[in-house]
Design brief:
- The chain is α+β, with helices and mostly antiparallel strands.
- It folds into two domains: 64 residues; 80 residues, Thrombin, subunit H (Beta Barrel), CATH 2.40.10.
- 15% of the residues lie in helices and 46% in strands.
- Strands 4-5-8-7-6-9 form a six-stranded antiparallel β-barrel. A three-stranded antiparallel β-sheet has the order 1-2-3, covered by helices on one side.
- Strand 7 and strand 8 form a beta hairpin.
- The C terminus is likely disordered.
Length: 152
């Protein structure tokens, strides 16, 4: 985003931060927030106060987008993921795999091992052709493809 200020005087100060949130999968601008704050405090306090106001807006957007990760590496029947225990995965979790280009469903994998700080290994239980950078989402019955996920 863009920061204007902080502007301050003996009476107080003002800061405006223009925050832009992008969908990194598509490169689309999701939303833009002008965050403003006035205070009797110093410049850092003004900036902190303005950014604090944007946290709940960002949390709301992230909840709408949903959780996803990507395939890190494929070796034979082993599919390594950029997510593990820290991301909430457990052994036995079923995940759906989609092509990052056309969002075509490739199949389903099951988490078989958690390792490292936040990584996991899975094995294919349905489909084939899993490749590095594929999109991975939690399996849900009746899930719509990723490009339709934000549509009503």
């Amino acid at each position: 985003g863009t920061v204007y200020g902080p502007f301050s005087s003996r009476e107080g100060g003002f800061v405006e931060v223009k925050l832009q949130v992008y969908d990194t999968l598509k490169g689309d601008l999701l939303d833009e927030f002008p965050l403003q704050a006035t205070s009797q405090g110093e410049g850092r306090e003004l900036l902190r106060k303005a950014l604090q106001g944007g946290i709940s807006k960002i949390e709301g957007l992230l909840e709408e987008m949903g959780w996803f990760t990507r395939v890190a590496l494929v070796e034979g029947d082993k599919v390594y993921l950029f997510a593990g225990g820290e991301s909430g995965l457990k052994e036995g979790d079923l995940l759906e795999v989609y092509s990052p280009l056309d969002h075509r469903r490739k199949g389903r994998v099951e988490v078989s091992r958690l390792f490292g700080v936040d990584a996991s290994m899975a094995k294919g239980v349905e489909g084939e052709g899993f490749t590095r950078a594929d999109l991975v989402l939690f399996y849900e019955e009746g899930r719509r493809p990723p490009e339709q996920a934000s549509k009503p």
